[in-house]
Each structure stands twice: as structure tokens, then as C-alpha cells.
Amino acid sequence: MNLEDFDYYLPEELIAQTPLKDRSSSRLLVLNKNTGEIEHRHFYDIIDYLEKGDTLVLNDTKVIPARLIGTKEDTGAVIEVLLLKNTNDNVWETLVKPARRVKVGTIVSFGEGLLKCRCIECRDEGIRLFELIYDGILYEILDKLGTMPLPPYIHEKLQDQNRYQTVYAKNFGSAAAPTAGLHFTKELMQKLEDKGINICYVTLHVGLGTFRPVNVENILEHHMHSEYYEVEQETCDIINDTKKRGNRLVAVGTTTVRTLETVMNRFGEMKPCFGNTDIFIYPGYEFKIVDNLITNFHLPKSTLIMLISALCGREMILKTYAEAVKEKYRFFSFGDSMFIIDK
């Protein structure tokens, strides 16, 4: 299976640079994955496609201001550090630019020494393990020193940092937002609950595994970096009850899909658990629990477009994306939404 099989044409002007003023007013492309039928709506219309007893599963991870600009203590060279994953106490996996300037023992200082990072291990692809040195509460320090790690295709400055958070974000730990959830407002969620639609949560801290580009021609050779996930008993109970009743289970975002499928592959059923997952879903994968998905429009040749191609079929997804381009949908993190329905 070749990387080029997941490419598509996208005019640059369709890459959304800023979020809409009203989250739920984004457009919604509804795709019936059994018939290929497409409808064009708005995200607030999602309630019309859900029935009492259906369940939405959301990823409640919270983005940390993970992008830091500092200087090497010995030379003063400017170093950019992106915090990816807390691996052990104050040891973090990071992505560093320029990585060649950071060796084992290198100390990078931020905010005149308010935070320091000492390199303890060098890995491939610009990855470094840093021991973080600071006094106080880390997330309060990051609020002062860090910025939201927006994707490189976004060139506009984000005026409100909270627009790169879901309204239900709870558990700190992500280096990127689970963007399918950015369309929900508290008002819309209340309307869904009032209709009798269940809402439950998983946690997957988005890291390198989700947004790292695929750099191999044969996608089977691509290595997914692991990301931390956690699923609680309450969520498992709601999901299991939904399935028993024959109601619809809707995953919100590819990170939620990866979490649910990881648990099912691990146990064959939904059980409370936590751990790290490097699951890579591409065409040919047999889904264990997910058949309905709310998701954004994804980058060409990305693992995310491979995942939704596994759910619907590559040809159907590419045809649908061509329709979205024709209709001038807004793409990627701050863009419009897509609802893949099974019935």
C-alpha cells in the first residue's frame, strides 16, 4: 500500500487559518458510508442525526502550552522545544529544533531560568529526552512561558489560546488538540443531553504519533510513536450499555477511535484501563467497536486520512474529499467537520 494512494488535491486557500467566531456554525459534511450519499449541513445540525440513547465518546485531553523558545546556557543559541509526553516524573519526550545543537548534557534555559531542561538522551527524528528543572507548579510555569503548539500549516497568530481547546478539555497532557471536538459548544452539548443522548469521555494525550508525517513510500513501514490513553469504568459502562441496547456509538475524533480500538484489541471488550498505544489503522483493518465518526478533514498522505479510509474505503473518502474541495469546505485543525454515519 503506497503513500501516494492517499494523496489528494487541496488548494492552499482552503486551509483554515483561524477558528470561526461560533464553534458550532462550522459546516458539516454528512457521509453515509454504506451508500456514499452526501449531505451538506452545519455542525449544530448534528443533533438531527442522533437519537435518544445514542452515545458520543469524546477525548477530554487538554493541550498544554507546549511550545517553548529558549537558549543554550553555554552558547546562547536559540532552541525551540515542543513538549510531547511526560515519560517519568519530570522527564519529558520532546521535539527539538535545531536538534543538532542539543547533545546529552545540554541545558536549555527558558524565561531567564524560570524553567531549565537538561538533555539526558538523544533519539532519532529530532527527539530528545529532557529532565525539567524548576520550582513551583509546572503547568503554571508553562502558562507563563509557553504557547499553543499550532500545526505548521497555520500561519495566523491565535488571538484566544482557548480556541485551541475543546470546551470540555480536562486532563492536561496533549501537544495538539483533538480537533474534531472543537466544534462543540456547551450550549450544543446541553441540547444533546436534553434529547437523551449520552456523552462520555476517554483520554488520549495527542503527541507525535498523531501528527508526525509519513516519510516512507510503503505505509506498512511507517512507525507510529506511542501516546498515553486512559479509559474509566463509567465510560465503559455507558458504551457497553449503548451497544447492548442497539443504539449508535459515535466516536468524536480519530484519537477517540484509536483509544477505543486499542482497548478492544487488548481485551475484546470495553474495560477500564490505561497505557500507551501505537495503534496504526489503515485500510484492511477490521474495526472492533467504532462504526460512526465525527472528524475534521485531514492532511493528504497522513495517518489520519488512512484511518478514515479504513472505515469507509479509500475511493469513497477521496471522492468525498473531492466534493468537499469543490464545495469549498475549510480544511484541517480550524476547518469544517465531517460526520461518517453507518445508518
- Cα(first) to Cα(last) distance is 29 Å
Number of helices: 7
CATH 4th-level superfamily of the largest domain: QueA-like
The biggest sheet amounts to: 9 strands, mixed
- Low-pLDDT stretches are none
Largest beta sheet: what is the strand line-up?
2-1-17-16-14-3-12-13-15
Q: What is the H-and-E element order?
A: EEEEEEEEEEHEHEHEHEHEEHHE
How many structural domains? Answer: 2
Derived from helix and strand composition plus strand pairing, the structural class reads alpha/beta
Mean pLDDT: 96
Computed Rg: 20 Å
Q: What name does the CATH topology of the largest domain carry?
A: QueA-like
Task: Estimate the global geometry from the Cα principal axes.
Answer: globular
Helical proportion, percent range: 10-25%
Number of strands: 17
CATH class of the largest domain: Alpha Beta
Q: What proportion strand?
A: 25-35%
The CATH architecture term of the largest domain is 3-Layer(aba) Sandwich
Describe this protein's structure.
- This protein is of the alpha/beta class and about 350 residues long.
- The protein folds into two domains: about 5-65 and about 160-340, QueA-like, CATH 3.40.1780.10; about 65-145, Thrombin, subunit H, CATH 2.40.10.
- The protein is built from seven helices and 17 strands.
- It has helices at about 140-145, 185-195, 210, 235-245, 255-265, 305-310, 315-325; strands at about 25-30, 40, 55-60, 60-65, 65-70, 80-90, 90-95, 105-110, 115-120, 125-135, 170-175, 200-205, 225-230, 250, 275, 290-295, 335-340.
- The strands form three sheets. Strands 2-1-17-16-14-3-12-13-15 form a nine-stranded mixed β-sheet. A six-stranded antiparallel barrel has the order 5-6-7-10-9-8.
- Strand 5 and strand 6 (about 80-90) form a beta hairpin.
- Helix 6 packs across helix 7.
- It is globular and about 60 Å long.
- The two termini are about 30 Å apart.
